[in-house]
Hints:
single chain; 85 residues; YefM-like fold; two-stranded antiparallel sheet; 2 strands
Amino acid sequence: MNEMVxxxxxxxxxxxxxxxxxxxxxxxxxxxxxxxxxEEYKRxxxxxxxxxxxxxxxxxxxxxxxxxxxxxxxxxxxxxxxxPR
Length: 85
């Protein structure tokens, strides 16, 4: 969504919209803040707190990190990649 509106007059509308998608609030044409649902905010905050040292990873996880393989569905984007020359 990329429309200019008077946010102050339609706050409830954008609060409802933010329940299903991020709502970017601009000022003077520049992005300033983003409205998101409380559930999404809490999910993001939980992710901030997940910290593990290498010793906490299983051998399979360490192997996956050392030898990453994209999922099969990622092949749909192969046309977007050009290897460096």
